[in-house]
Amino acid sequence: MKHIPKKRFGQNFLTDQAIIQALVNAITPQPNDLMVEIGPGLGALTKPLIKDLQHLHVVEIDRDIISWMQSFYPLDKITIHNSDALKFDFKSIGDSANLQKLRVVGNLPYNISSPILFHLLDNVQTIIDMHFMLQKEVVERMVAATSTPAYGRLSVMLQYKLNMEYLFTVPPEAFDPPPKIESAFIRCVPHASLPFTAADEKLFAKVVLNAFGQRRKTLRNTLKGMLDDHGFTQLDINPQLRAENLSVEKFVAIANYLYNHLH
Ligand code: SAH
Questions:
Q1: CA angle (59, 62, 65) in 5-degree steps
Q2: In angstroms, what CA-CA distances link 164 with 1, 67, 160?
């Protein structure tokens, strides 16, 4: 198909066959997997995936690509969802009882990568694993360790629910058109059971949001009105620290301390 890539949909199509093969190897599709690909585009991943899978779901926003897919793929192999992945109900895929969990893959549109990750995080109980191509810089933030410059809200919120593995870096030349930045491939697997559990996840999210709202400021400042000096002492947290110095465990401890003092 002749298709002019659309910038507004973040279209950078994978063309490097060795890299495509490496991605498929990392995913290791099994025939009976219940898999959904976000942003299939012209099929760089879709085509090899449906060789191994009995069936694949795809979520694509671009109507031109949708009409091409409808005539290109055998429709018993693929279910095409013409939808914005940010609004798509991932729980709608699969049997009504949701017995089989989803595997999610995609060379994601980079302009919406954080919102897609947060949207999927809300559906994590229906997901086995996720493999994504993203900007390298975002992948570095996802897996960042405490007290490093890349560690932020994205790291804490994702690491709370997911075990993540930086798989490999992918250069711009692997795509057409090449993006201006390097990319990386990442595997995310929901924790079988949460290492640290927030009694109220909304409160946890609010603490993390406030703490990183002004990341150069001390926790005493950013958590003012939530946590007083007595609270910091009780939690054994130095109020002069900044958000980037707090592990996921400590953020959960703060949220649970606040929860217990509200209830
Ligand atoms: N997987 C293909 C295409 C990647 S480009 C490849 O690797 O070559 C990103 C794809 O995501 C494009 O097909 C684009 O149309 C699609 N896309 C962009 N925004 C989207 C959204 N909000 N929801 C679903 N798909 C989207």
A1: 90
A2: 36, 35, 11
Q: Could you tell me where in the chain the CATH 1.10.8.100 domains are found?
A: 201-262
pTM of full prediction above 0.90: yes
| pLDDT, tens digit, 9 for 90 and up, residues 207-261 | 999 999 998 999 999 999 999 999 999 999 999 999 999 999 999 999 999 999 9
- Any atom of ligand 1 within 6 Å of the Cβ of 107: yes
Question: Which CATH number applies to 7-190?
Answer: 3.40.50.150
CB of 10 sitting under 6 A from ligand 1: yes
Q: Where in the chain is the domain with CATH 3.40.50.150?
A: 7-190
**At 152, which amino acid appears?**
G
State if residue 58 touches ligand 1 by the CB under 6 angstroms criterion: no
CATH fold, domain 201-262, is Helicase, Ruva Protein; domain 3 (1.10.8)
Which of 6, 107, 113, 131 has most ligand 1 atoms within 8 Å of CB, for mutation?
107
